[in-house]
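P.,

For your records, the input lines for the assembly:
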Amino acid sequence: MAFAGRRDVPEPPDFGILKRLARDQLIYLLEQLPGKKDLFIEADLMSPLDRIANVSILKQHEVDKLYKVDSRPALSTSDQFCFLVRPRIKTMRYIADIVNADKMSGRSRKYKIIFSPQKFYACEMVLEEEGVFGDVTCDEWSFYLLPLDEDIISMELPEFFRDYFLEGDHRWINSIARALQLLNSLYGPFGKAYGIGRCAKMSYELWRDLEEESEGDGQGRRPEIGNIFLMDRDTDYVTALCSQVVYEGLVDDTFRIKCGSVDFGPDVTSSDKSIKVLLNAQDKVFSQIRNEHFSSVFGFLSQKSRNLQAQYDRRRGMDIKQMKNFVSQELKGLKQEHRLLSLHIGACESIMKKKTKQDFQEMIKAEHSLLEGFDIRESTSFIEEHIDRQVSPIESLRLMCLLSITENGLVPKDYRSLKTQYLQSYGPEHLLTFHNLKRIGLLTEQSAGETLTAVESRVSKLVTDRAAGKITDAFNSLARRSNFRAISKKLGLIPRVDGEYDLKMPRDMAYVFSGAYIPLSCKIIEQVLERRGWLGLEEVVRLLNGNEFSVSDSSVEDNPAWESQRIVLAVFLGGCTFSEIAALRFLGKERGCKFIFLTTAITSSARMMEAMIEAKA
Amino acid sequence: MSRARADEEEYWHSSKFRAFTFDDEDDELSQLKESKRAVNSLRDIVDDDDDDLERVSWSGEPVGSISWSIKETASSSTSSLESRDSSLQKGSSSYAAFPKQVSSYSLSSLFKGRNRLPSFQSLSDALSDTGVKNYAPELRRPKAEYKDYSSDWSPKDTVRRMQRGKICSLERFRSLQDKLVLLDEAVAGHDGNVITAVLIFLKRTLRREILFRELEVRQVALCHLIHFLKETGEQKLLLDLLRFLDRTEEVALSQYREHLNIQDVEKRREFLKGCIGLPFSAEDTSHIQDHYTLLERQIIIEANDRHLEMAGQSEIFRKYPRKASILNMPLVTTLFYSCFYHYTEAEGTFSSPTNLKKTFKIPDKQYVLTALAARAKLRAWDDVDALFTTKNWLGYTKKKAPIGFHRVVEILQRNNAPVQVLQEYVRLVEDVETRLNLATKYKCHDVVIETYRDLKDRIQLTAYKCKVERGSAEEEKINSVLNNTQIRWKN
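Structure tokens returned:
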């Protein structure tokens, strides 16, 4: 796909069908257990389920009572239990306990477990061990894809990040491959596939494998999505670790957007209740500010409220008939807008209050220094003070990781001292957190590894790229070196700007970080799409530890006139942030193409850090 | 320090980021406030009667309230529920507020009108004709149909079948050779679920030393087994495996991790004592030692203070009853606690701040920050003063701090320190710009006046006159400075 000047951005395909498919399958599965039944739902599945079905649909299919799966024993008189769960060992034990307790008390019931999105053999093993295999029936609900917005599809698998990148477990790769298969069959065939990262490569291979079997029913079909780009989260941790300053990212960092909706508390609603708001393209106010830098949002909101005021003011001097018209035709829309406007103004205020309290200004400054690589000493002492003041455990971790990744690890002296102070401020058990961060490569200590690099680069000069990639893999089992500084230089991630960066009229994707940094992940996508491959990016690829690919399917007709050629499915394995989404939406507008986001989950620095903390069993 | 400050100033003033600051006296915020006022003034016209904001999803359908409904069952089905559920209820979002929707959902309507895609046509045609029953089995076929025990699938086919969720018997892979080929195929197939399934089989049919030995050269499979053992909680086998692999540090961490599951503090303390001897790195050993010592101290302090509090004879505990127990809190929190309740105690007692500082080698910076926060909270300004006062050998006193004085000011201000206290520290802020900002913000008039005087900035000083009260001592001071003929004003 070439970026040939500005063109109209194509419309995204309709993803509503994905919801209907998921809902239908669930209904089918529920009907497999005819009669009244109680439904136990895993907490993590509740919000996704809310987005595709509602209570009355469940009731229509004879679901009597709804429970949350947790450690409390169930007290119910129903004859049939249905469990809607993620495939987890812990949940299996919970279910087995219920079944065994019933057996002990001589109660007979029917039990059905519906795994979403798929069943794991390890789960069946637990059921077998607990002696309830055969007492329960198992099914799979292939609910892989939840459309969160017109251009965002989430797999709602936040645990993917820890399972794959920390534990090295490939359990979700099959789910990803199947998700791709489903999208390909509905909106493909994808003519062009690009990717970088080990997981991207494996997922791609497994998906092709599945496709081969299904005897390409989509051949000769006109696709709706022409390109796909897969990327591992560990290709770019830096972007995910930066403080977000576009509105949607800030709302996520401040209030946590969950499954496309957010709970605005009393401080936002200026009343005593909280309000749950869906944040998407349907929200007329939000859709206009979501991608904006926070500083541009105020102006927009005040303009908007002035307009609204003016529209209301038109009432004055209306005669009865006009008034009637006004009330019947415009009032509802205005009311809706008013409601949204006051919510977002409230949210802005609350964000400002929180950020002012936490020295946000200073923090952003420290982050920018880290990204640009100057005043490292000063940033390090900023982080130290942040820790000493017990500000926020998660923020402190995030800043340390950012320091580590941009500097290719901490100097041993700093590592020790920051770690000690961290343990003193937030609790000694974080020793385990540090161990995890080291394993995943987010927070490391510079050490003998430095000499390895020399060997590495010498070796890679001698042998071909591919072999060098393997050698690099061997050197770093899971954790990889980030080489951020070199990559940043090669790709020009720090814009050199004379004068002021106009955040209201951004010139590049750097606006999502106040003009200080172009998100690496998005830059890679831009470069590869522009070049229709990795040609000319060899050095960058080497610094990113390889595993890149670019495949065009020769059997797919390649008609440049098709809109699908300008639609790109960007797949983030391990999560993608709202800042990245905003940056690529911006790029799309500039280049006349449309990005559709498929992610294992929406992520943020806080979610990533939290995933590294050990919880009690 | 002042160098750094100046850099910072320069950074913000010169650079591209100037357009936006998170300062609360900013134009933007007032703009925001104005918008808010405007919008709020409309509120009486637009009362919140009928808006369905939170019910509409982007597909236009009412999004129902499954989460809400679960909360309902949780709180209504049994009366013996703990408070956790009622708190769920309490923190209710407006989900609780809207009524259950009766949707006009019908199965056959689902696929009507969706004939856009050729590939889809066949599927949806079939659907609208026969309803969901015929179509759904396409999506999901009972796996049992595929059961195949007699087969002699190759390892590769076995893995492929398993990847597709079909049940395959692994029993016929009996030779070590066969087992390993199967495992390697599973790894090559990239599906972790299958890799784990094969590992479960291998674990059951191989002696552990042999399994371990083979996994040592198969890193991907090894990761899967380790993760599996962590999840199933087979701690003993996990430790054996890690020991076999000589990953001693992980052995230690994995054992240490168990303390998270021990609730009882005495047991936890005993357990931590046992952890000290584990093969941690030298650095971590001292952290573990500290963890143990800290909990030991906390148990002693907790017992003492609970007693003191109950007896009701200690004034500090009467005045400021403890909100939570100090057990299992981080060191810094413990230090804060001891600075709050036990500040004046002699170094000999376990609960004295100095003792804690010494035992855990708390850096000065950390200590001062914490002590300052604690004493400021109690409004013990003399203690605050003493914290920063040093005497030199001639007996002169001087104020010194291991942290920037702007931080000191910030902490004092947050604890509502009076202006007299505050301005003493504002005066000590080295960077002139920051000092002026803080002084103006917190109305430390004397500092502002002195600073402008030192800067010989007559214009600013004159301008400041309108910010102080008419006829006040400050105004007089400004006048006397302005009339001082000794000063050579720069403007």
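Two observations worth noting. DSSP finds 26 helices and 14 strands in chain A. The CA atoms of residues 34 and 387 of chain A lie 57 Å apart.

Regards
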